[in-house]
Amino acid sequence: MGGGRKPVKSLFGKLADGTQVHSWALENGGTRLKVLSYGGIVQSLEIPDREGRYANVSLGFDTIEDYVAKSPYFGALIGRYGNRIAEGRFTLDGESYQVDVNDGVNSLHGGAQGFDKHVWDIEPFTEGSDVGLYLCRTSVDGEMGYPGTLTTKVTYTLTRHGDWRIDYEATTDKATVVSLTNHVYWNLAGEGSGSIHDHRLEIAAARYTPADSGLIPTGDLAQVAGTPFDFRRTKTIGEHLREADQQLLHAQGFDHNWVLDKGSTAQPEHVATLHDPSSGRTLKIATTEPGLQFYSGNFLDGTLVGSGGTIYRQGDALCLETQHYPDSPNQPSFPSTVLRPGQTYRTTTVHSFHA
Predict the structure, then answer these.
(1) What is the pLDDT of residues 282-298, one digit of tens each?
(2) Residues whose CB is less than 8 angstroms from the CB of residue 163 and which lie 6 or more positions away in sequence, other chains included
(3) What are 270's strand-pairing partners?
(4) Of 254, 237, 312, nearest to 59 (Cα)?
(5) Residues 6+ apart with CB under 8 A from 242
(6) Which pTM value belongs to this model?
(7) How far apart are the two ends of the chain, measured CA to CA in Å?
(8) How far apart are CA 55 and CA 218, in angstroms?
(9) Catalytic residues
(10) Hey, which residues does 151 pair with through a beta bridge?
(11) 224-244: per-residue pLDDT in tens?
(12) Are 76 and 41 in contact (CB under 8 A)?
């Protein structure tokens, strides 16, 4: 498997205002990871197949200009609030807040200038047999309409086993809402290799949150049994993708939050397995979070050319975003996303790779 190498920094490009964007290359336990200071973006993640051949299994671009102008959150750190907030409005401690609206009438992934659109401060580290990066950013009070100055530290670690671990931490000086995640688009056969409909997926969840036509949860926790949303036993993503189910019609496929059976936990617990039969690659996800957003790449429309030089089309990748539920600030029955002064927001997600 090999030991970890010290992270290597290089210039990736410059923003329009001249700000430099750097790339950090990490390698450990057979996994190779490239991270950008812009948006904390995973620009590539390479793992071997059953024959030991490496491929980049995450969608992305090879220029900073494409990330700025076109990216549908490829590989990005998402904040302050992952997923959607209805009409960008919520009430907290009797005060109403309006955050940036960037998805029809709703707010998505923190607004038009979310955490994915900022340059992060990055410090590399080696700790025992692990290597990694500390990513830090302060979001000032009122940014994108959110209350409180939020001080955020995200740690990307590559372990000696080749696992990619993400530890999220945040504190605030004023009551606010927060839900951080990462938005890697996975194709375990390799980015640009075609559809993920033959990938096999399992999710440890007996319920999910149905959504309206704007993909805002209705508030119900519906049973997956007897629906296309039942992934409690491994099945191909394409098996029920074209069924005439109203929920699939709303999202043009899967773009929903699964209510994980384990709930919120102090330590990461296994919640999902993704397998590509063609390459033999398997991804296992463990998390402390109560929810998992499975998105089947429905809005990839053939207008983007990826890092490998091929066009990305609908269903060419999928996302498995660990999270609190969408629109939780407006859904009192959902697990709370409120963070108060004196508290520390902490969540962890671990991606393990096998072939």
Answers:
(1) 999 999 999 999 999 99
(2) 29, 31, 157, 350, 351, 352, 353
(3) 286
(4) 312
(5) none
(6) 0.97
(7) 13
(8) 39
(9) 183, 321
(10) 138, 171
(11) 999 999 999 999 999 999 999
(12) yes
* Other Cβ atoms within 10 Å of 8 Cβ, number: 12
